Amino acid sequence: MAQRSNDEWLAELTSPDQYTQAEAIEALRKRLQRGIYYYLSRERSDLIGHPPEMLLQMSEDFAQDAVLRVLDNLTSFRGDSQFTTWAMKIASRVAVSELRRARYKDFSLDNLTAEGEIMVRLATNSPRSPSPERATEQEDVVKIISRGFEEVLTDRQRLALEAVTLRGIPMDTVAEQLDTNRNALYKLLHDARKKLKAYLEDQGLGVDYVMNLFDRQ
Amino acid sequence: MTVEERLQNLMRCICQTKEEEIDGVAWDLQMINLAEMAARGTDIATLYPAIQQYLNNSPDCYEEFRALVAMLKAEIELGEDS
Q: pLDDT for A159-189, tens place per residue?
């Protein structure tokens, strides 16, 4: 069939006629699967080397989940974009979330705290610049930031900043373990960054100086 | 991430912090339009530095954005046949 309009997608996906509905669901599933496969095979460096049939299976599974999610949320489609683009937004979240879940299924913030303060270890193991003066300056700044972590951040802010910014743990994983959501976690991190920036400035360290010190290793 | 990358990331995040930033709600409203632009070749980072800063500080959103852009690129490259 030719391209469906937004209204046609909505009408067919909710059609009382089972054949019409099944055909629309299958068309949507195929469209999402194709896009997800493209993403998995071309954009995910961590999946390089995986056999195509494995990526195909993953894309089939994610597309199936995405279609169910789309059908559950049809009433929230406002018509601001093409229906398929809106559905792809949902599918992209399903795919990325599933990949994250698999990768971080054993991660626990409790383990993070058990490993000790990462800033202390960074302060003592910070990379040495070829220039001794520069290396000393870098160490001094890391020590100041490390003190800032202790003095101005709450426990939750410290934990969140360590997990997300220093260790690259996905925000959804951290948010779940902090019993919050991604938007609230972003706010928590923003407040933590603002406090640390103010702390640096209070210590007489300008942001340009700090950026230059760490950007030109 | 290496120790160097961790430190650079931390310092960049702190130093580039603005008093007011785009939040997740605002991002969610713009994500589709920006993804369509990016899929057609627009350099979002250059055109919208505040958006890029949000994405740098919200890696989950950045990852989902890249996934959506890739899916839209597939539409452009492979055609829309339904």
A: 999 899 888 899 999 999 999 999 999 999 9
Nearest CA in chain B to A82: B32
Better-predicted residue by pLDDT, A84 or A1: A84
Taking Cα atoms as reference points, which of A149, A3, A75, A157 lies closest to residue B79? A3
Cβ <8 Å between A210 and B33: no
Give ranges for CATH 1.10.10.10 in chain A. Answer: 109-215
Residue B32 sits at the chain A interface (C-beta within 8 Å): yes
CATH of domain A109-215: 1.10.10.10
How close B80 comes to chain A (CA, Å)? 7
Cβ distance of B14 and A145 shorter than 8 Å: yes
ipTM of model over 0.85: yes
Intervals of CATH 1.10.1740.10 along chain A: 6-103
CB of B20 within 8 Å of a chain A CB? The answer is no
User: For testing the chain A interface, which of B4, B36, B63 should be mutated: the one with the most A CBs within 10 Å?
Assistant: B63
Closest approach of chain A CAs to the CA of B18, in angstroms? 7
What's the pLDDT tens digit per position in A10-25? 999 999 999 999 999 9
Q: Between chains, do A166 and B72 touch, taking CB under 8 Å as contact?
A: no
Closest partner residue to A122 among B6, B24, B58, by Cβ?
B6
Q: Which CATH code, of 1.10.1740.10, 3.30.70.3190, 3.40.50.2300, 1.20.1260.10, is assigned to A6-103?
A: 1.10.1740.10
